[in-house]
Amino acid sequence: MTKKIGDVILDVNNISLRFGGVKALTDISFNVKELDADDGELTRTNKVRRGFIAEKYLPLVDALYGGLTTQFIETVVKFEDGRTGSVSATLRISDAQTFVPVKAAA
Length: 106
Hints:
This protein has helices spanning 5-18, 50-56, 58-66, and strands at residues 70-78, 84-92. The mean pLDDT is 77. The protein contains three helices and two strands; from the N terminus they run αααββ. The chain is an alpha+beta fold. The longest helix is centred in the N-terminal third of the chain and has 14 residues, at 5-18.
């Protein structure tokens, strides 16, 4: 059975509420490529370089919080042999259904 991403987010949020969770998935983004140390996105110990990522993917962050429904993104990638290339895509942005947490009985 194939589920849409929105259905999975809805399932996760429902489960979180059933177990008294106060956190819910509200924004989710899928990058156009896997983060890589060769591209400066990760340290050599695979920690995310948050400042670099924030700057590099600023158009996506602005689109998420700006209410856009699509956003074009293009980024340069470095290959292990030293060559460079580019990856680009127009990403679709949609809202996920969220719920207000129910307070537990005293």
